[in-house]
Amino acid sequence: MLFNSIEFLIFFPIVTLLFYLMPQKWRWLLLLAASCFFYMWFIPKYIFILLITILIDYSSGILIEKWKDDISKKKAYLVVSIVSTCMVLFIFKYLNFCSANLVALAQHFGWSHPQKILNIALPIGLSFHTFQSLSYVIEVYRGNQKAERHFGYYALYVMFYPQLVTGPIERPQNLLRQLHEHKELNYDNIANGLRLILFGLFLKMVVADNLAVYVDKIYENPFDYSSGDILLGMLFYSFQIYGDFFGYSTIALGCALAMGYSLMDNFKTPYLSGSVQEFWRRWHISLSTWFRDYLYIPLGGNRVAVPRWALNTLIVFTVCGIWHGANWTFMIWGFAYGVLLILERGLRNIHLFDRIEGKAGRLVINTLNVAKTFVIVTLLWSVFRATSFGNLHDLFTALFHNGAVANQLHVAPVAWISLILFVLVDILIRDSRFDVWCGRQKPLVRWCVYAFLMFAVIALSSVEQIPFIYFQF
Amino acid sequence: MTDTTKHTVKKLLLKLLMVLLVLAALDVIYYYTLYPKDLAENCTLKALSERATEGVDIVYLGESSNHTYSDADTDKRFICEMIDDMLPEHRVGNLAKDACHAGVYYDILRNIPRNSDVKTVIVTVNMRSFTSEWIYSSLEPALRKEQIMMKKAPSLYKRMLLAFRAYPNWTDEEVSNIIRKNFKRQTFTLPHPFPYRNAYEWDQGVGGSYTLYNGKQPSMDTIAMACHYIKEFACTFDDNNPRIKDLDNIVKLCRKRGWQPVFNILAENVDQMDSLCGPDLLWLLERNAQYIIDRYESQGVIVVNNLKEVRDSDFRDRDFPTEHYKQTGRLAIARNVAEAISGKSHAGR
User: Mean pLDDT across chain B, nearest whole number?
Assistant: First the structure.
């Protein structure tokens, strides 16, 4: 079920109302049933894939805890759990990609290799709930989390509907613990939750979807557009993907908060980052911290020699790229971030602007850093957005050769206005959150904001069906 | 319930009321600002039903068959224009749009102003529009959007239904699944033993064996064309068909508004159908046309049966079964409709 659908507008209040009417001991059942219903709205049969992952990691958690004093057995169960969970991910997400590349490689060397293509669709949100499930097993292995004995609660931890499809990727210490807690009806939670949902819908339906129309045109036929149009398309995509994903995460946070559950923030004004490193501390936080905790640190993190650290960084970001999708463009996108982080570290001792002093001077430097980071991120988003290397090549060829072509992209005022508003709001709520910021305003201001957002979501949103970008992952 | 809970519930209800008041105010703002633009962009039919009914006493509801012509035609008039010329004492308004069907016609008719002079309503009955391939076609979402905007409801509410996609949003995969399921479910019975029970089996039988009903094994294109005919026509209409329900609603509405309904059953390329699929598919098609005639003539509807009125050479498209006619085809249909109206309708009396 999509958050921006009429079905969800009916589903959400019913589930929330039933949640508060139901005794605590049955709430897990209600939420689990609701989550199954929510997930099965897409492709019902894929619930079984989810069930397999849940069963594997639920049993593994118990077995790992049971053999906590026997390191080898404990480790064996962990490995079995990780391999089998990742195998499901591999089959559905990467098998066809690997097969196609093997065929290409075989053809290159003149070998015969029949291509086996599985005619299967990627279950929605598979990468997200796989990672969430893995984080549980790893935390149990590390002794940071007790194994969950109640299958219902564990299934709910993986399937909790607000964050089931595109995260935030939660940790058991945060979500599983909360699922056991008794949640009282609380006005602030409901008000803040609804504020977040409204703001999230605005980001997705007004900002992202209105920009998507132009982005799609540019990427589909880059040669039809001028260099200026293409730059604009690239800029728009930066805000489309931000609005789209931030919007989804915000709605997810709001839905959970309305029932008293607090999910982790996934974004903290990433486009105001002064460096690539800072960008990754502010963008898709639940994923970047997942990679930090479960891959980067186990590889040695930064407590190793510089060459090893550089290798670790490249590995982590390349895997991060592949996590996003089975396509070379994603891999290159991740790898490029790894290279940039290494470069940033290499250049950090060069202080070109040390002599610039004073508040104004620092402001100029910070602004330049933010601009530099934004340009880098935007350029790399074009690698991320391109459907193939061919598409990326076309985009940049058109960018450098269509300077003389007249501008074709006629952007509607609503797209500009929503974009500018988004940037302003993002700056305004920097280091805070929309619901918190809203709560601090005077009632009149608050209600004006609500009225504007409601009007924008209903009357200014795109009428085209534009799927959430991160659904494909 | 504790006092705190009671207090919270009261507070929430109060806020809900305030939200509703804000929405009511926003509805007024929307109605006078963006609604006209949204109507123009997303609801051409509403404007059409208001504009095209001014000063006319007959309206013609149709789809692309009305206005599609062959480049070689010397007479490129639409069917409705031909009818208009054939009935000089009447004025015929054009309410046709591509891919329309009875469900949309009903909403268009509901939007005809009360003070209009309309007395006769010609409703195109396209036999393909009753089958799954059309009901779940990729053109349907756009029509459903139009239907939403034509609803008699607060303007902001209608826009909200558009914004939150309260219309079908099938992906290509979903569409093929739905159609396949419907093909399998909608069984038909012929008056003699037949190897297939439904369109799915028939399509698979012909498409899988590359063999026509008469044992011939023609080119792939011909087999594909035969399969198209099977998928478009192999079913039996009944009370549960959504288009039959729509036609029922149209009849009720016509009765309520005092209009004479005329159902114009469009011609199909029965020559080609017969040569590719044999007499069985033709039997089903005729049976369905008879079902419509029997059902609606008894309710006072003038049903013009044009099913076999156009010969193969007068169909424009060769790669898909359509109702796109050359000028002689359009003329034949227009003549039959005009004659039926002049002989029997309110307007003619």
Answer: 90
pLDDT, tens only, B167-178: 887 777 788 888
Residue of B42, B164, B165 best to disrupt the A interface, most CBs of A under 10 A: B164
- Kindly list the catalytic residues of A: 324
**A5–B165 CB contact, under 8 Å:** yes
Would you say A92 and A120 are in contact if contact means Cβ atoms under 8 Å apart?
yes
Taking the CA atoms of residue A19, residue A23, residue A28 and residue A31 in that order, the dihedral angle to the nearest 10 degrees is: -20
Paired tokens of B173: 């995969």
Enter the pTM of the model.
0.84
Residue with tokens 């224009």: B81
pLDDT in tens, A122-173: 788 888 989 999 999 999 999 999 999 999 999 999 999 999 988 799 999 9
Q: What are the tokens at B145?
A: 């959007």
**Closest Cβ opposite residue B11 in set A8, A187, A465:** A187
Report the gap between the CA of A138 and the closest CA in chain B (Å): 37
Is the pLDDT at A450 greater than 50? The verdict is yes
Q: Which residue of A has its CA nearest to B149?
A: A463
Could you give the count of Cα atoms lying within 13 Å of A404 in the half-sphere of its Cβ? 1
Average pLDDT over residues A78-87: 92
Q: What ipTM is given for this predicted complex? A: 0.87
Torsion angle (degrees, nearest 10) of CA A391, A395, A401, A405:
110
Tens-digit pLDDT profile for residues A287-321: 999 999 999 999 998 888 989 999 999 999 999 99
Residue B106 CB contacts under 8 Å (≥ 6 apart), including other chains: B246, B249, B250, B253
HEC profile of B226-250: HHHHHHHHCCCCCCCCHHHHHHHHH
